Amino acid sequence: MTSWEFAERRPVLSVEEAERILRAHDHDPAEARAELAERFTETAELLGWLGY
To answer: Taking phi first (over 0 means left), then psi (-120 to 50 degrees means alpha), and beta for anything else, what does residue 2 get?
Structure first.
């Protein structure tokens, strides 16, 4: 499954899921939350922020 297929299947993540994905990629969730604001749990936005 590609990252975009994942985003289509799970368009919104819980805060805990989003934080776990960010930590798994060695990013600080606070940094992403500051840049994405209310879009923090939107899967496509989060994956885009990570560069996928």
So the answer is: beta
33: Cα separation from own chain's centroid:
9
* Mean of the per-residue pLDDT values of the chain: 96
Report the pLDDT value the prediction gives residue 2, as an integer from 0 to 100: 92
Local confidence pLDDT in tens for the 52 residues of the chain = 999 999 999 999 999 999 999 999 999 999 999 999 999 999 999 999 999 9
Count of CA atoms in the C-beta half-sphere (13 A) of 26 = 0
Say how many residues make up the chain. Answer: 52
Residue 46, judged by CB atoms within 10 A of its CB (0-12, 13-18, 19+), counts as: buried
